[in-house]
Amino acid sequence: METLEGTELCFPQLLNTSCRKPMRPHFESMLIYILLSSISLLTVTLNLLVIISISHFRQLQTPTNILLLSLAVSDFFVGLLMFFQIILIDGCWFLGDLMCTLYQYLAYIITSASVGTMVLISVDRYVAICDPLHYSTKVTHKRVQVCVCLCWICSVIFQSMILKDILKQPGRYNSCFGECINFVTYIAGITDVIFSFIVPVNVIVVLYMRVFVVAVSQARAMRCHIATVTLQFSVKVTAKKSELKAARTLGVVVVVFLICLCPYYCVVLTGQDNLLNASSTASVICLFYFNSCLNPVIYAFFYPWFRKSINFIVTLKILQPHSCEANMQ
Fold it and tell me: What pLDDT does 178 receive?
């Protein structure tokens, strides 16, 4: 009986202080491992392709793509961090308190930077669609680079304040060996929800709604003047159709963003348990991370240049001299 109990412990040699493993059917455990490993590998691969594409080809280094690059970098590291989440599926953490704290700290920073970059992307698209004449003067390479740097710096500072307790003393809230939990005070948790979710979501929704209104008004203008289209107006019609398509794409972005992030923050907002155990909330957190897998699909696969750059990378044309000057449009 003692041996049987030992098999249920994270550290069988520590009978009195070890955490116990949640018992799951073997098939269920294998299915979870395969699913999460596939998502993690796909997230890393897709975002790495975006990073290589934008970093290598000079034609792709536009202000908008710099934002996409920042998003891809954060999502790439989210994919790597998912491997640590896979370790926690069995409810046991074997890497020590310091690594547990580092994992949580990096996860908060990277996720916050990812959300911040999405806000910057929404601002970029708002200016491009609603004020196209002044876009080139308002959105420059230098300004975008400064905004990206500030986004990451603010994420580091903000999350350092949110997680200051566990940073001072890693593992201080663990009740047994093999546990990796994240304790956030109620005030810190609400602050994190406000500035990492509520405020960004509201900014994104407001900007995208404005884009949608502009696109709809232009679509109505096209229908009203369809009978008297001239060559000059046909160019405007094409531009308006492009803006309407962009509005639809942005609508998909908002929906997917909310679907992936809402469940996690809804759990936090309930305030029923500030002591969040990663194994007990694995499904919510994994859905939260899954957004990083979808981001390159939404932001990149909708662009022809990404498909062309993938072809260059897969066929190793990227290794040829002067390949960085290739036409990707």
Answer: 74
CA dist 191 and 274 (Å) reads 13
DSSP β-bridge partners for residue 276: 182
Is pLDDT of 157 > 90? yes
**Confidence at residue 238, expressed as pLDDT on a 0 to 100 scale:** 47
| Domains detected in the chain | 25-325 (1.20.1070.10)
Q: Are 258 and 201 in contact (CB under 8 A)?
A: yes
Residues 5-33 have pLDDT tens digits of 445 777 777 767 777 776 777 777 788 78
Q: What is the pLDDT of residues 195-217, one digit of tens each?
A: 888 898 889 888 888 877 876 77
Cα separation, 70 vs 68, whole angstroms = 5
